[in-house]
Amino acid sequence: MEESNLSTGGHVLFAHYQQGMTDYLAIALLHHSEGVAVTDQLDVTPSRHLDLGQLHLAARINISEWQNNKQSKQYISFIKGKNGKKVSEYFRDFIGCQEGVDGPGETRTLLKAFSDFVESEDLPEDSAREKTKTLVDYASSQAKLGEPMGLEELSELIDEDRPKAFYDHIRNKDYGLSPEIPADKRTLNQFRRFTGRAEGLSISFEAHLLGSKIEYDEEAGTLIIKGLPTQLTDQLKRRN
């Protein structure tokens, strides 16, 4: 750290919190700005407030993942500093951590987020197929270039009319993805969706599930689905 351009001012925040059954530790460098406020007596007085627009140095550690999965490389995520990569490296040195990269795992998580997005949007089959092709083409192109996938850029490509829709879906559901992730070719090659709709029935699943969770009998024209989603089984139980 002797060669680093150290940050000055501000406060370091350590926050230990629980979301569901998962423990997290958040570490952030906070800055304040000078402003004005109006008192109850309608007097204008100087006021100091947190400037979240300068929240460029922050990390979240999934404590549960770190303790229970020793092989995991995905228990730390960072906000990317606007001043460039060196800022993030300095912050990692400060908290004594390194950001691990799990290409296959991050790519699988992205594809899961995309599948959830397509389902939540209830897209027509043609539209879902087109967006899937856009994702795979972009990810494959980035992989060939040796560059990471930018989630905001990908979101813009997937839906030009609503360029933030997919990105907001990822953030709102908290998949734990960084703004940029590596693309794993093998995982991408396994990603293809089989979809079909007819007479009130809609079926969609990823190709890699065929032969494991899903069995297809061509002669009988039937599908056997194992491991039904909890949301679906709950609805079936309440059907009466």
Question: Secondary-structure map with pairings?
Answer:
Layout: E1 11-19, E2 22-30, E3 32-38, E4 44-50, E5 58-62, H1 63-68, E6 76-78, H2 85-95, H3 103-121, H4 125-145, E7 149-150, H5 151-158, H6 165-173, E8 180-181, H7 185-189, E9 193-198, E10 201-206, E11 214-217, E12 222-225, H8 230-237
Antiparallel strand pairs: 1-2, 2-5, 3-4, 5-6, 7-8, 9-10, 11-12
Large-scale geometry: elongated
Strands of the widest sheet, in order across it, are: 1-2-5-6
**What's the domain count?**
2
Estimated helix fraction:
25-40%
| Strand residue percentage | 25-35%
The helix/strand class is alpha+beta
Low-pLDDT runs of 5+ residues are none
Mean pLDDT: 80
Order of helices and strands: EEEEEHEHHHEHHEHEEEEH
Number of strands: 12
Individual helix count? 8
Straight-line distance between termini: 65 Å
> How many strands, which pairing sense, and closed or not: the largest β-sheet?
4 strands, antiparallel
Radius of gyration: 23 Å
Q: How is this structure best summarized?
A:
By secondary structure, the chain is of the alpha+beta class.
Can you give keywords for this protein?
12 strands, elongated, 240 residues, 2 domains, single chain, 4-stranded antiparallel β-sheet, two-stranded antiparallel ribbon, alpha+beta
Describe this structure in words.
With 240 residues, this protein is an alpha+beta fold. The protein folds into 2 domains: 11-95, no CATH class; 103-207, no CATH class. Helix content is 36%, strand content 27%. It contains 8 helices and 12 strands. The chain has a 4-stranded antiparallel beta sheet with strand order 1-2-5-6. It has a two-stranded antiparallel ribbon with strand order 3-4. Strands 7-8 form a two-stranded antiparallel ribbon. The N and C termini lie far apart (65 Å).
